[in-house]
User: Fold YcfA family protein from Leptospirillum ferrodiazotrophum.
Amino acid sequence: MKRGTFIRKLKNEGCVLVRHGGKHDVYRNPKSGKQATVPRHSEIADRLCRIITHQLGLPENILS
Assistant:
């Protein structure tokens, strides 16, 4: 999945950017209080997208 598409889906679910890192950005879900790192690659593997959504406490169906 393209990184921009994935970030847009996270933001639509209410996740916010906490900070920029060297190779990753950190996003937080204010509803659950959980946070996860998102790599700054142009393409993010679908499996990694599912792992990140799980870490943030989001439903997997947002990736469809």
